[in-house]
Amino acid sequence: RGVSCLGRFMPRTFVIPPGMELHHIVPHDVDEDGDDENPQSPDPPIWSEIMRFFSNPRKPMILALARPDPKKNLVALVKAFGECRPLRDLANLTLIMGN
């Protein structure tokens, strides 16, 4: 039996918007009172490998995880990032591609 939901109130249907609520997140090197326990955290071992790809590795990162498929349109992402000078000044673009 088919049931049309058009025009019907469905109280068990919820819309979950994309994104995250960042006010729930506390960095693990800061306690809940906001006091810095360790003001300078050590760099991870892979840091030297990462630094060779970025002129400024401390900038925020735009991370794209996808398989290298034309359907994912990574070419447009790289083109848009490359053409936007303010965005290039603010962040690094990191592509992780694979199956």
UniProtKB/TrEMBL annotation:
Q: Which domain of life is it from?
A: Eukaryota
Q: State the InterPro entries in the record.
A: SPS
Extract the GO molecular function terms from the UniProt entry: glycosyltransferase activity
Ordered alphabetically, the record's keywords are:
Glycosyltransferase, Transferase
Which Gene3D superfamilies does the record associate with it?
Glycogen Phosphorylase B (3.40.50.2000)
The transmembrane segments are none
Protein name, UniProt field: Putative sucrose-phosphate synthase 2
